Amino acid sequence: MNTQLNYHHLRYFLAVATNGGITAASEAIHVSAPTLSAQLKELEAFFGKPLFRREGRQMRLTEDGRHLLRYAERIFATGDEMVEVLQRGKSAGPGTVFLGVSDGVPKLLVARLLDRAFQLAPDLQCVIREGQPQELWGALGLHQVDLVIANEAPPPNLANLPTGRRIGRMRVIFAASRALAKSFQKNPDPAKLPVLAPARESVLRRELEQWWAAQEIEPMIRAEFDDAAAMFELAARGLGAAPIHEPVLEDVCKRYGLVALPLKPDIEDDLFVVGDKRRYAAEGVAILMDLSDGILKA
Questions:
Q1: Do 288 and 113 meet the contact criterion of CB atoms below 8 Å apart?
Q2: Per 3-state DSSP, what percentage of the chain is helix, strand, and coil (rounded to 5)?
Q3: Residue 117 confidence (pLDDT) above 60
Q4: Cα–Cα distance for residue pair 5/32, rounded to 1 Å
């Protein structure tokens, strides 16, 4: 039995898997379609199992193919690091880190993390990509980002993701302009309080909706936002109270002239960091992951 894996076969398999078919992979890596098809057949013969199934013009991975894809991605990611380090002739240093940030994570926390990281590693470079958690988990699985900070855990069915951990919890508190805060003190009825809310698809919005329903409150929502900074700007103008995560409450209130209200929903958002500490090359991921443990503390 031949036990020597042909890494050319594995590279071609990865190209077809990530491009969705032989034709697209052929154009991407400049290898003829017949060659790719023949190499895939040899790889399937090597493992004794089909790795793809055809669905129209698309080629879908079988269960065995999905297992192989996870290994192939790790093998070539490590190989690329090895080449980079050996060609440089020295450690790659902090390097460039692609950081995915869930849109529900307070950006002041991200700024706090990066400030501390740049103090520790001045040569570090970061590319920040913001998006919905499900988009970032996909990008992480495809190595388009190196690590993700999110206020929800990755779904357990995405087995190709690196390990993650919860780095803390964030209580939610409402804050408003001084004038609106005084008005609320005179009439502390949550149903009469104008509210500025995060977008409906956000984790925090879902949690607020559940809390309002449990308290039998019909909120007076004045506006909904994808951008927290815009929400705080309008809160500063007295148009409504805004929900703020407690770790950044002091900074937000100071920056926008807001006052915390005695309105504290029974909501605590988890904060997760998910990524691989690259073992052989750029150390920036390890630096950010280590520092992330302390970002909930000012």
A1: yes
A2: 45, 20, 30
A3: yes
A4: 22
